[in-house]
TrEMBL record:
<feature type="domain" description="Methyltransferase">
    <location>
        <begin position="55"/>
        <end position="149"/>
    </location>
</feature>
<dbReference type="GO" id="GO:0008168">
    <property type="term" value="F:methyltransferase activity"/>
</dbReference>
<dbReference type="Pfam" id="PF13649">
    <property type="entry name" value="Methyltransf_25"/>
</dbReference>
<dbReference type="GO" id="GO:0032259">
    <property type="term" value="P:methylation"/>
</dbReference>
<dbReference type="InterPro" id="IPR029063">
    <property type="entry name" value="SAM-dependent_MTases_sf"/>
</dbReference>
<dbReference type="InterPro" id="IPR041698">
    <property type="entry name" value="Methyltransf_25"/>
</dbReference>
<keyword id="KW-0808">Transferase</keyword>
<keyword id="KW-0489">Methyltransferase</keyword>
<protein>
    <submittedName>
        <fullName>Class I SAM-dependent methyltransferase</fullName>
    </submittedName>
</protein>
């Protein structure tokens, strides 16, 4: 996969886009409702309301995914992480319940930023197609999870049909990119389009989870215009590995 933006260049582009990011995603029908749905899917099988849990929100952006987690698991302690200082500043400035903390770190550099497990659950929204080494980040996430801990990925992962790609391209070129260009963020949203069409299909990404050692992996569609475009992929770190406690 060859993306327009990588690593520091991508974080810098998100820094610039942070000022208008919330307004832009608010215009996306179902954006926040879909995040909450994926958070609920992650929460299935966890203690009700998340009491006593530690949850990592990996790639929190301006906090939309954090808000979804806080609504679904209000009793959990949430560590929200992002590589973009601009996005994280917007997120941290919002009102949050006790137990929500924000840390600036790239997904590949969590240990260096003091983000340590074990976590009972990890949520990653719109993250994996933006990292240079998705398999490496999946390995890090698996190792941060407690045995039996759950991963929920909310991502633009196309379903594999030609119509899915066609709808995604039409929305990006006809709506998203023209608005983003006016805001001065055209390069970032050209990256958005390309990062999705060049990334895994939903089933292929689920295969990455299995290959990295996750079990109970499921691919779940989301409704509305994003059917076949956005999915929730959930998995679990096994309680035992090779017959021994993980």
């Amino acid at each position: 996969m060859t993306l327009l933006l990588r690593d520091e260049d991508l974080a810098t582009a998100f820094d610039h886009a942070a000022r208008g990011y919330d307004a832009l995603v608010a215009a996306n029908p179902g954006y926040h409702a879909h995040l909450r749905r994926s958070a609920r899917r992650l929460g299935l099988g966890l203690p009700r309301r998340g009491e006593g849990l530690r949850v990592l929100d990996l790639g929190c952006g301006t906090g939309a995914s954090t808000a979804a987690l806080a609504a679904v698991l209000p009793g959990a302690r949430i560590v929200a992480v992002d590589a973009s200082a601009g996005m994280l500043e917007r997120a941290a400035a919002k009102p949050w319940p006790d137990g929500v903390t924000f840390v600036r770190a790239a997904a590949e550099g969590l240990a260096g930023a003091g983000v340590e497990g074990p976590f009972d659950a990890v949520f990653a929204a719109y993250l994996f197609r933006n990292v240079s080494d998705p398999d490496g980040v999946l390995t890090t996430v698996r190792d941060l999870l407690a045995p039996g801990g759950r991963l929920g990925v909310h991502e633009y992962t196309l379903g594999g049909r030609r119509v899915d790609r066609a709808v995604w391209t039409a929305v990006c070129r006809g709506v998203v990119q023209p608005v983003a260009t006016v805001l001065g963020d055209g390069e970032l949203y050209r990256h958005l389009h390309r990062s999705v069409v060049e990334f895994d299909t939903a089933d292929r990404f689920a295969g990455r989870l299995r290959a990295t050692g996750f079990d109970a992996v499921r691919v779940l569609p989301l409704p509305g215009w994003q059917t076949g475009i956005t999915h929730t992929i959930v998995g679990r770190r096994p309680r035992t590995e090779n017959g021994a406690e993980a």
